[in-house]
C-alpha cells in the first residue's frame, strides 16, 4: 500500500465530494462520534460553503485512487462565529481575529483501515506547511482519545470548551501556534 497526500484548493476538493462523503461517513460512524447519514449531510452542507472560502485548502490522502483521509480548513474571518460557541470564558486577545491570524482546521479524518500509519500526521503537515497564519484552531471531542493524543503530540494546547453547533456534544477548543520565520 502506498498512500500519497495531495494539497488541493477548493475547486479541486469539490470534485472529490462523493469520495470525501464516504470517507467522512466511515471515519465518524464509530464511537465516540456515532454519526449517521443525517450527520454526513449536515457536514457536507457546510463543506459546500467552506470550499468557496478565501484561503481554503485541503490535504487529501489517497491509496491509489481511493480517498482514505482528509484534512481541510481556511483562515477565519474577522467576524467569525467560532469563538462565540465557547462555554468557557477566554481572554479577549485569544478571541481576536483579523482574517489572517488563525487558520481554522474544520475536518481531519482517516478511514479506519488506514489508521495508525501516520496518515493523519502527514496530512496535517501538508495542510499547515507554508501557512502565513500565526496559529491553527480546531475543535475535538474530549473522548476521542486517539485524536486528542495526536493533537497534543503535534503541539496543540487546549484553550477552552465549545458547543460548536446546536445539538453538538462538548468539544475541546485547541490551538497550535505556528513558527514565524
Give a verbal description of the structure.
This protein has helices at residues 10-14, 17-27, 37-50, 92-95, 119-128, 145-153; strands spanning 3-8, 57-63, 66-75, 102-110, 135-140, 157-162, 171-177. The chain is of the alpha+beta class and 181 residues long. The model has no long low-confidence stretch (mean pLDDT 94). The N and C termini lie far apart (36 Å). Strand 2 and strand 3 (66-75) form a beta hairpin. It is globular, with a radius of gyration of 15 Å. It contains 6 helices and 7 strands; from the N terminus they run E-H-H-H-E-E-H-E-H-E-H-E-E. The chain is 29% helix and 28% strand.
Seen as an oligomer or otherwise, the chain set is single chain
- Structural category is alpha+beta
In percent, how much strand structure appears in the residues?
25-35%
Overall pLDDT confidence = 94
Number of helices: 6
* Strand neighbour order, sheet with most strands: 1-2-3-4-5-7-6
Q: Over the alpha carbons, how many angstroms does the gyration radius reach?
A: 15 Å
